[in-house]
Amino acid sequence: MELLCPAGNLPALKTAIDNGADAVYIGLKDDTNARHFAGLNFNDGKLAKAADYVHQRGKKLHVAINTFAHAGGEERWQKAVDNAVAIGTDALIIADLGVLDYAATKYPDVERHVSVQASTTNLEAIKFFKNNFDVQRVVLPRVLSVQQVRQLAKTSPVPLEVFAFGSLCIMAEGRCYLSSYMTGESPNTVGACSPAKYVRWQETDKGLESRLNGVLIDRYQADENAGYPTLCKGRFEVDNNVYHALEEPTSLNTLELIPDLIAMGIVSVKIEGRQRSPAYVEQVAKTWRMALDRYQHNPENFAVEGAWMNTLANLSEGSQTTLGAYHRKWQ
Amino acid sequence: MKFSLGPSLFFWPKNDVLDFYQQAKQSSADIIYLGETVCSKRRELRAKDWLGLAQDVARDTNKQVVISTITLLESPAEIQVLKRLCDNGEFLIEANDLSAVQIMHDLKMPFVAGPAINCYNLSTLKILLKQGMTRWLMPVELSGDWLKILLNQAIDAGIRQEFECEVFSWGYLPLAYSARCFTARSEDKAKDDCEYCCIKYPAGRRMNSREGERVFVLNGIQTLSGYQYNLINEIPALDAMGVDIARISADSTAAFTQLDNFREQLVHPTIKTLDGIAECNGFWHKIAGMSVA
Question: For residues A25 and A27, what is the distance between their CA atoms, to the nearest angstrom?
Answer without folding.
Answer: 7
